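Write out a record, fold above all:
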Amino acid sequence: MSPSLISVWDSLCTPSLPALGWGVPDEILSLEGGYLLTRSYLIPTQDGGHLMIDAPMDADVWLEQLGIVPQALLLTHQHFDHVMTASKIAKSGVPIYAWQPFSRELTLEEVVRSWGMPFDVDAYEVTHLLAAEKSLSLGGLDFELLHVPGHSVDSVVFHLPAGGLAFAGDTLFAGSTGRADLPGGDMELLLSGIRTKLYTLPENTRIHPGHGPATTIGTERRQNAVVRP
């Protein structure tokens, strides 16, 4: 399977989205990788590099095609479809940032294997644990870390206030939310986290989810039928 480069300019697909605000062009690259069409993102940094969000299937091939070695890999959570190539990417010297250490309980591969889906995740080391942190500065970009469990116990949203955007993983989607019926899931906890930590962000904040198209906080507050303000 060859990787699919979805867009250089996300706003071409969703023109109602506001422009990025940190003074660089909209050059966020996006990949839909693997059978579940899991999103990975490459964010340009202020010092000329890139940060990577999540590592689905084919993300390593994507990086090779682009000729990019990211400064860091940030994991929104560690379900198998978001970390399939994390080990391969780490072998290039890329540090991994995640809320918790790697574990088979987080990747869920043993669960999905029991369903007849043979996904095997190569073990990797989380070099920087984020559970005790509220912020993260990399490449001249300052992230606010929002822990929003409910889909997974380790789900973290990477919010860039200066850019007016957030990488939400499988917490909030356009018109929906991540599922909460997997091990470690809790729908009430997820809804509460979205209402108190995401819906309180500025309404023009762009949400880049782990699956599907980008959206905004204002759009979801008005139209999301699963989680109301």
Q: What stands out?
A: Residues 24 and 49 are 13 Å apart (CA to CA).
